[in-house]
Each structure stands twice: as C-alpha cells, then as structure tokens.
Amino acid sequence: MDQTIGYVITIGALIMGVMFLTGHGGIFMKGGNEKARAERYDMKKVEKYSGIYLLALGVGSGADLFVSGLTEEIVYLVYVIVISVIYVAAMKVKCTRKEYKK
Q1: Structural domain boundaries, residue 16
Q2: Is the pTM of this model over 0.90?
C-alpha cells in the first residue's frame, strides 16, 4: 500500500509542531474571529499546547508507518483519540483566560 499520505502527515505535523513551539506558528492560526479568540484564550499557551500536540501526532504517525498489523492500527487510532481529547481538555482548562472560566 502507498504510504505517501502517512509521510505527509508525519512531516507536516513535525514541522508545524516545531514552528508552534518556537513561536512561529501564528501563521497557521489566522482566520475566523481572531479578536474573539484572542480575548478568550492566552495565545502563547495555545501555541505551546498546539506544538506539543502536533509533535505527539507526528511521532505517532511516524511510528504507524512501520507497523502493518490490525492490532497496531487500532492502538494508533486509540493513541490519536487520546491525545486529541487531552489537547481539547488542555485548551479548555489551561489556555482559557481567567475572566472566561466559569
């Protein structure tokens, strides 16, 4: 099977993760209602947590390129779901500004 999409996801996630962690990922956060998002979230923390998430996704996707069994694919799927849930929870708990917490 062609694994090109796996390589694209892995390399893209790793590059974007490093960009976010070094403070150059703001270009990926453009669009939508930027003013409302900046009022609600601490954007430096959002960049940090997004970088960590993307690096974790890139590492998991890279590891998935070297496995072929059904069990390993299920483990990868569970891994992606777990880190995604942790990422969303971190956004809500750690990145929301205090005046917006309820």
Answers
A1: 4-100
A2: no
